[in-house]
Structure formats: C-alpha cells, structure tokens
Amino acid sequence: MTTSTNSEAGNKLICTVDVVLLSLSEGQLRVLLLKREREPFAGAWALPGGYVHIGEDQGCEDAAQRVLRQKAGLESPYLEQLASFSGPARDPRGWSVSVAYFALVPHPEEALPGQQWLPVDRLPQLPFDHGSIVATAVERVRSKSQYSSLPVHLCPEPFTISQLHAVYETLLGEPINTVSFRRKLDELAILEPVVGEKRTEGAHRPAQLYRVRAEFRQRLRLVGRGLNR
Amino acid sequence: MTTSTNSEAGNKLICTVDVVLLSLSEGQLRVLLLKREREPFAGAWALPGGYVHIGEDQGCEDAAQRVLRQKAGLESPYLEQLASFSGPARDPRGWSVSVAYFALVPHPEEALPGQQWLPVDRLPQLPFDHGSIVATAVERVRSKSQYSSLPVHLCPEPFTISQLHAVYETLLGEPINTVSFRRKLDELAILEPVVGEKRTEGAHRPAQLYRVRAEFRQRLRLVGRGLNR
DNA sequence: ACAATAGTGTCTGTCAGACAATATACA
DNA sequence: TGTATATTGTCTGACAGACACTATTGT
C-alpha cells in the first residue's frame, strides 16, 4: 500500500458539484433529475452536477449556478450549500469530493426533455450517492421550514397566505394553526401586499396577494421560537 | 482564456481539510492554531489542516480525524462538518477546495509547543481564508448552542450543572435563567449523575456531578423550543 | 339569501422567567 | 450560627392553539 502523497498524478482526485433542485407540485416535494448523457451511469436519472471548472468558476457556488444555468436553464434561484460528500467509492472514476447545494424554485410549467421531477419520498435507486444527497437536502429543508422563511421560495409570486400555508403544511407533514401562521408572517415582515387581489375557483371572499420583500429574496429570516409546533 | 476541461494536469485542483478545534478557557471561546512548518505561510499561525490522502482516507471526515490525531494528538472529539470553502485565490498554490470541520473539546491542561489557543473574538489576521472559516464555525456553534446539547462537549467530565450553565452563558453571551436551564436539561435527559459529589471553594452546599450519557457522546440532542431566551 | 373561503378578535392552557424557600457544606 | 451556593417549589406573564365571529365574493 502506497503512502499517499499530496496530489500526484496516477491517483487523481475528482472534484464536482451536485445540485438538489427542489420544487412543490401536486402536493408533493419533488426533485429535478436529469438523464445522464455520459458515462458513468449514462442513461440513468441523476442530480444535475458537473466538474468544477477551475479556469472559469470563482468557487463551488459559482459552479453550482453554472450547472443550474446550463442544465436546467435557471438563472438565480435561492441556493444554499448543503454539505460535501466524499470517498473512494461514491464515483467509479475514483476518489471524489462533491460539494452539494440545494435550491428551491416555484414549480415550472413543464419539464424539458431529459428532465423529470420526481417526488422525493418515492425515488428509485440513484447513481453515485445521489440518494443520500437528496435525503440530506430534504431533511435540511424540512428542518429549516420549522423556523425560517425558506419555503417562500417554493411559491410562484404573487401568492396568497393560504397558498403559503399549504406549502408549509406539505413540507412539515402536519397541520399548522392558521391564526398562529398569520401572526408569525406578520412578525417576520418578509411579505408585502400587492395591489391587485385574487379570486379562487369558488364563490367566496378573495384573498390578498403578497410577494417577498426584496431584502429577503436571497436571505432567509429566522423566527424566534419556530412556528411552534 | 482556455475553455476549462475536467481535471487535466497543468491546472491542478487542490483538496484539503481544515479543522476548527474549539475550547473554553478563562471564560473565553478559543481556537487551536498551529505554527505552520511548510510553505505557504511557513511560520504563520493557522488552523490544523492538510491534504486529503486518497490512498488512506475513506472520506474527508476521516482526513479531518487524521489531522486532529497527527497534529493535535486528539482521538475522537465531537466532530461535525462545517462547510466547504473554495476558489482560485484562497490558497496561493492554486484553485482549492477545503472541506472544513469543527470540533469541541474540554480545554487541555497546556498547549504543546507550536500550538496556541487564542480567543476567537480577538484573532489576528490568519493565512488563507482561515479567518472566515473560524468565524463561520463560531457562528454555527453559538447558533446551535441555543437549541442543542452541543456545549456539553466543552465541559471536562464530570461537571456540575453550574459549570455547564456558565458554559452556555459564555457561548450565548447573555444570562440564562437557572430554573429554566435545569428544567431543559431534565427534559433533554442527556446527563446522568455520578456517585461522588463535589465541593467548590467556599462554604456552601456541594453540587451533584454529572456526565453525558453514552448515547449522546457523539450525537446531539435538539431541544423543542430552544433554551428560550 | 347561501355557500365558501379570507381574515380578525378573544379565551385558555402551557411554559419560560421571577421569586422565594429549602438544603448543605465550611467557617 | 452565619454565609454561600445548590436545588426545588410556586406564581405570573407571554404566547400558541382553539374557537367563534366578521368580511366578501359568486351563485
């Protein structure tokens, strides 16, 4: 067994980024998977990802934004570093480090060819360790939803309080008191009302529309004592 | 400008780990710095860190444990992944990714030669981006202290509730209600009393000694609604 | 008018913080 | 006995959850 030295040829280390792009549709949290065009795992559905381009990227977050732009056509969704995954076996090409990010977007109209939005609770086996990466991201998002404004990034603007309420309930998997929810949103002061109103299907009072205030478009807001659940 | 390709020679990517080892002494949160023996920044005080050894390490966490063992002589403190730091400029040797970890230990008797424990609030300029890494770690630890059992790893066992209380107050920087604190510890059920008792300096009732229950030596315990402050 | 959802006002139980009482050591 | 800190018991204010009431639309 060779005593490993710093970073010599022959035993190259691979460095990639992977992005867990999440969205909400049909009452389910879904993740974007792409059909891989190259080996390894060509033809399999996997997370969007790619090599860090050291001539081009100013950091791994840059690389993640580039991957999102090039492979999912997205410009600047809410993006946050998740964790790094590493080891000799996770990628058949060799010892690898993947810096994983997660991003949240309102659900797009339709998936492009080679794209698929699958419910995170019913995923097939994924290549590499993408299964664990998705699981980690989902856990993080559900956890942060308990005490932050993170989920607003899943709502297409403008949205009603009821819509946002439903989003939180889906993520947390249990009912949230509507009165408390409104109170919290008030305290947080991340939303601003939009002039127009909105009417739902049926015959009832229309709901005020809101959008996220610019200051919180990229930054989160943490709540003092959670949503209290 | 070259269109960057995957990971060809000439433009090698560097992959390292860095560890923010934290401890509490004289009422201050302190970080371990080591005098660098090699370039770059030979002679400067910096975080313990090193290359990932792909022939030896089973992952970056392994590498971090190895660094702690070899450079600080520690066996298995509480260790958690912090974040990854990357970019073309953070390391003069080239485009680099560092997977950073933080670890908590009771303050050791004395620093070995070439080691130094400096207060995190009064650090000099550090090489690389070690200043940001430490800042991120401190923020994470302070934040987690609000709602988890993380700080127990800073107390030399066995310890009294009063000691632990002081640790929390130091980390959070404000007084914590003693009654609430005891109640929370009770709920958490992470501590178990040790047979012997302890007497402090003066003349007063001795305090019960506790240690962390084995189940929580490596895992954290989260509190429902924080320590409520 | 009726149905249905949006939004608000008010009461109640729970829990963190304050305060006070008790416990137990050494001097 | 006196002093100092540990530990426990009890009261109180703040706030989340429940409930009920008002608002506003289409049918």
From TrEMBL, chains A, B:
<feature type="domain" description="Nudix hydrolase">
    <location>
        <begin position="12"/>
        <end position="141"/>
    </location>
</feature>
<protein>
    <submittedName>
        <fullName>8-oxo-dGTP diphosphatase</fullName>
        <ecNumber>3.6.1.55</ecNumber>
    </submittedName>
</protein>
<dbReference type="InterPro" id="IPR015797">
    <property type="entry name" value="NUDIX_hydrolase-like_dom_sf"/>
</dbReference>
<dbReference type="InterPro" id="IPR036390">
    <property type="entry name" value="WH_DNA-bd_sf"/>
</dbReference>
<keyword id="KW-0378">Hydrolase</keyword>
<dbReference type="Pfam" id="PF00293">
    <property type="entry name" value="NUDIX"/>
</dbReference>
<dbReference type="InterPro" id="IPR036388">
    <property type="entry name" value="WH-like_DNA-bd_sf"/>
</dbReference>
<dbReference type="InterPro" id="IPR000086">
    <property type="entry name" value="NUDIX_hydrolase_dom"/>
</dbReference>
<dbReference type="Pfam" id="PF21906">
    <property type="entry name" value="WHD_NrtR"/>
</dbReference>
<dbReference type="InterPro" id="IPR054105">
    <property type="entry name" value="WHD_NrtR"/>
</dbReference>
<dbReference type="GO" id="GO:0035539">
    <property type="term" value="F:8-oxo-7,8-dihydrodeoxyguanosine triphosphate pyrophosphatase activity"/>
</dbReference>
